[in-house]
Design goal:
Helix 3 runs antiparallel to helix 4. Helix content is 66%, strand content 0%. The protein has six helices and no strands.
Length: 241
Amino acid sequence: MSADDLAPELKRFLADAWTRDALLEHASVAAFGRFALQLLAVGAPVDLLAGAHAAALDEIKHAQICFALASAYAGVPIAPSRFPFEGKVDVTADLAQIAASTVVEGCIGETLASIQAAEQLARATEPAVRAALAMIAEDEARHAELAWRTVAWALSIGGADVRRAVSLAFVDAAKWLPDAHGEPAPEGSVEHGRLERAAMRDALARALDDVVLPCARALLARPSTHPDGGRADAAGPVALI
């Protein structure tokens, strides 16, 4: 891909935007690594563990592609530096905590990430960008499906504490929507896979109402095999969504 014919302002904007995406994808590699360790800690089924490792490999590809696009727009190589682990990785074996974080990062985050990529793809015209977004949208949808399956498994074996943690995590879903405010995108950015903040927030808000929350209600309606049946009265009220 060549960005030689683009205005300098647009190239800077696109380089910055794709760099931010690349860094998020890079961080997701670590997130799925931790997720895999936590699945091991709670004895999750092997298909969930395999899915976590496959998703981490997907995120490596996403980071590489986004860094490549950022480099093309910037005209110089852009790559990640050392990841800030700070000497430790926090891993929990608390099933309720794992289920709640999976709701936020997967059921909400990955579902919206897939829809965001699809929205960007629908408007993009640059072939390299379209190819990247098509792959990302498909992969993120698969990651979302993994998250939903993980939470369903946790609910099926967990008690009221797991059900409450999951329900509360969905109650706060709207706070993960992107800010609608900010500097307007330069003219021509849509063709390169970037949408105005307000338009993106509106699309993701609709996805939250039409996809995420209905799926959450269906998920929480499923019975548990835990001795207390995941009853709300076993350990206090479960928040409704």
